[in-house]
Amino acid sequence: MVPRHLTLALLAAAAPAMALGASLDAVVGRALFERNWVSAPSSTQSDDGLGPLYDAPSCASCHQQRPPEDFDETTVQPGTIIRLGNARGAGDPAYGNQLQTRGVSGQTPEANPDIVWNVKDGRRAASITLYSQGFGALAQDTKMALRRAPVLDGTGLLAQVPESEILKQAQAQKRKGNGIGIAGELPWVTVNGKRVLGRFGWRATSLDLKAQIAMAFSRDIGLSTKAHPDPFGDCTARETACRAGPHGAKTGEVEIPDSMIDLIVKHLESLEPAAPKQNAAEALFNRTGCAECHATLHLADGTPVKAYTDLLLHRLGPELDDGIGEGAAAPGQWRTAPLWNVAKSLKIGGLLHDGRARSVAEAVEWHGGEAAPARARFKALNAADREALAAFVSGL
After folding, report:
1. Average pLDDT value for residue range 312-329
2. pTM score, two decimals?
């Protein structure tokens, strides 16, 4: 249960949304999503537990809906984290699965990263250098890569897509075979001994919104949940000060109970995607082969979900291979990113998993592997058609 005093505070903060007719659960969930957590101990119970090491004080600080002010591109942009790992899917033995660049009072952040965007042939990619590493060198096989927080509009609808619809997409691609060069793989994850399809996260490592939220609380904010009960988040055994640091839960309890996560899920389910737009350029989208992966899925009742994703894993070539395995995804494999929030993504940080692409055309240029034939067909269009197709996707 959410403590009564916290519920009252959240309701007060969310009163404007309630006035617009939003459901009570979604309103409280939004307030929790936007809430800035503080370090323990705090004078306000159930409001603390941040860190000890962390990347963001709230969910909303990552999933911002506007570009940050006075952003210095050499730093880690709000809404972007540095992923750590190797081809086997293991995190770094000293730094874990994610670099935490902030710490509560008395704690040493893991490192101070410097980001350089290198531009070649009109495409940019990030190189990352770590300064002031607090816990020694990274392991020899550890790779670093940026990950941006996606726009969340429509995620609740994606959660409703039945597993059978995703299986059907994989089967259809398999039947077509190498004739289209597409061979999406199913992102199986094991939960409580049962194999289920992942669908959230850049590599579909979370089976549902609740699992994705719990992971973010642990790695991004340093708050414990039932799924990730360690109060020190992503801190490894080598980070003894972090593990010994203050946290906001009593012994045997967690800082974020399932009841809070369920309310945040309600908030995310209330975020509707933009209405589908009729555009003649969608025929070009289909003709070039983009729709083979960026497909239209359907709910159990046949309602189309115009998210433009098949929710499968695809190999996109060596240039998008960051050397990190995650869940069922090998290095170089990515879940097909939904396109229905491209317009917002371009405003707040760019496209692809790390925000490297500043336009739809630039994102297409990075598509290799299974997507190489579609990229070639896009480039073979005349200039007017290329511009029309890029404008269509840019407006989604």
Report:
1. 96
2. 0.92
